[in-house]
Specification:
The chain is built from nine helices and seven strands. It has 197 residues and is α+β, with helices and mostly antiparallel strands.
Length: 197
Amino acid sequence: MRSELPPLLPIFRSRHQAELLTLLYLHPAQEQTVTELAEHVGVPLTTMQREVGRLLRAGLLSGRKVGRAYLIRAMVPGCYARPLTELLTLAFGPHLLIEQEFAALTDADAIAIFGSWVSRYLGESGAPPNDIDVMVIGRPPRSEVYEAAERVERRLGIQVNPVLITHDRWTQAVDPLVEQIQSSPMVWVKEFPKEAE
């Protein structure tokens, strides 16, 4: 699920450029067409074509023609690859990594990030977060949840705190933790199925 990006770091010329680079550098083996990138970032195709052209000329992206399609990927390896990946991962990417690593959880109805990382991500001023709080709603095996959190920690270099909540506990909202989470900003990385809403 797409969410608004945080306030721009001065090195990025636009929100869509930051989101484009995050998408490609956090998945360096993937190639996508300019049309797919435009759809994912949510900008017109002509805007994405201009942005991709700039980044190709700057040596931050690479492209190759396959039939009628032009496939774009991050310039990895490349002289900027490691520092740019680290910057994008810390500034914009935790929700993508959490979505990736928590995707295979058994019996997880929904997954969301809450707490200080989300506050900074959505533009609230404050100190940089020193951890990421992840809520998992459902009944997944606890060991799977903690293993997924450890994988994200290794990739980000920042502590990930998973909180397991049953569907009933979430919908009844009878304890202070659930009430606090429900009243705070969240970034959903896996939403409830339509029939569960």
